């Protein structure tokens, strides 16, 4: 999918993609914090994370990472299949 | 394919880059929506375990497949409806 870009153009595209990836990572990180915090922390009688909350947060991070990986694999497969199908239809 | 663009001005560099970038953005957005939704539908929020349970893993796989199928179905249907609507309006019966 180079779309007939010149070398300079594809360098510019790479730079933009890199910027996007940084943003994307911050987004994923933010969602992870929000999701795990919401799921694990609901007791505000103390300002420190309790042992239970701490454990829950680490399990949440672990599980979310496995989830991300697994869904990433499925997404890759399904997206490739969908793209192939669309290209076939266009011919 | 460039001969199909006959008579059209050549896209500028910025336009070409934006087109590819946009395509990537659409895919990236679909990916992050899918992760959010399938996590919500499949993952037990108590986090008593740090590992994916078998049932959750299977649920994620099915959720991903269904998400794509739904995406395809809705996009096809929307396209059909829009075309039908445009054909109806283009029929030229003078109705608004």
UniProtKB/TrEMBL annotation, chain A:
GO terms for molecular function: metal ion binding. Residues 17-76 form the Tim10-like domain. It is a peripheral membrane protein. GO terms for cellular component: mitochondrial inner membrane. Keywords: Chaperone, Disulfide bond, Membrane, Metal-binding, Mitochondrion, Mitochondrion inner membrane, Protein transport, Translocation, Transport, Zinc. It is found in: Mitochondrion inner membrane. GO terms for biological process: protein transport. The keyword Disulfide bond applies. It holds the Pfam family zf-Tim10_DDP. The twin CX3C motif contains 4 conserved Cys residues that form 2 disulfide bonds in the mitochondrial intermembrane space. Heterohexamer. Belongs to the small Tim family. PANTHER family: MITOCHONDRIAL IMPORT INNER MEMBRANE TRANSLOCASE SUBUNIT TIM9B. Mitochondrial intermembrane chaperone that participates in the import and insertion of some multi-pass transmembrane proteins into the mitochondrial inner membrane. Also required for the transfer of beta-barrel precursors from the TOM complex to the sorting and assembly machinery (SAM complex) of the outer membrane. Acts as a chaperone-like protein that protects the hydrophobic precursors from aggregation and guide them through the mitochondrial intermembrane space. This is Mitochondrial import inner membrane translocase subunit.
From TrEMBL, chain B:
It holds the Pfam family zf-Tim10_DDP. The lineage of its organism: Eukaryota, Fungi, Dikarya, Ascomycota, Pezizomycotina. Transmembrane segments: none annotated. Mitochondrial intermembrane chaperone that participates in the import and insertion of some multi-pass transmembrane proteins into the mitochondrial inner membrane. Also required for the transfer of beta-barrel precursors from the TOM complex to the sorting and assembly machinery (SAM complex) of the outer membrane. Acts as a chaperone-like protein that protects the hydrophobic precursors from aggregation and guide them through the mitochondrial intermembrane space. Residues 18-80 form the Tim10-like domain. GO terms for biological process: protein insertion into mitochondrial inner membrane; protein transport. Keywords: Chaperone, Disulfide bond, Membrane, Metal-binding, Mitochondrion, Mitochondrion inner membrane, Protein transport, Translocation, Transport, Zinc. Heterohexamer. Belongs to the small Tim family. GO terms for molecular function: metal ion binding. Gene3D superfamilies: Mitochondrial import inner membrane translocase subunit tim13 like domains. This is Mitochondrial import inner membrane translocase subunit. It comes from the Eukaryota. The twin CX3C motif contains 4 conserved Cys residues that form 2 disulfide bonds in the mitochondrial intermembrane space. One of its GO terms (cellular component) is mitochondrial inner membrane. InterPro entries: Tim10-like, Tim10-like_dom_sf. It is a peripheral membrane protein. It is found in: Mitochondrion inner membrane.
